[in-house]
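Final report, Chapter 2: Outcomes

The project's central promise was a pipeline that accepts a single protein chain and returns its three-dimensional structure in a standardized token representation, suitable for archiving and comparison. That pipeline is now operational. To close this chapter, we reproduce one record exactly as it appears in the project archive, with the input sequence first and the structure output second.
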Amino acid sequence: MEKKNNNNKSFWPYGIMLAIGFIIISCIVTIIIAVNSPNDMDNIYLRAYQDVNDNIHEIMKKETEFNENFLVNVDKDNFIIGKNSFELKITDTNNQAIDGAKIDLLLTRPNSSQLDQKLIESKNENGIYYFENFELKNLGRWQIESRIEIDKYVGFYRTEINATE
């Protein structure tokens, strides 16, 4: 009588156990990374995210009305390390200068709120609003985020500018 050779073992149960273990460890690592990462919010609407979440439809309606009636342009291509300034020009759709706008402006980095600077206009003339004498200490991408209020219209404007030496 011949003996059967039982040396051919099956390793697939070990593979399944290893895959399940890998998935569990990956989930734990993902949770640890998410908990330890800072939660910087997007400031495009210059409000707390809860307020934006509650009123997003009204905000977007106002923004659409604003964009149908006004044009906003930033007259700056690059910032430099040190003192900077720029101009924000607001016109209506007939290219008439708009004075008397209330502007809340934030200069920020794309993925962090640690270096945020609230800028205040130094003067305005003929629809050109001047923001002067603010200082940048870091190279790279910066965003100008603004909330502009003209009478009953409210608009939001964002542009990206690079800071060089």
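Archive annotation: The chain has two domains: 11-40, 49-164.
This record, like all others produced under the grant, will remain available to the consortium after the project formally closes.
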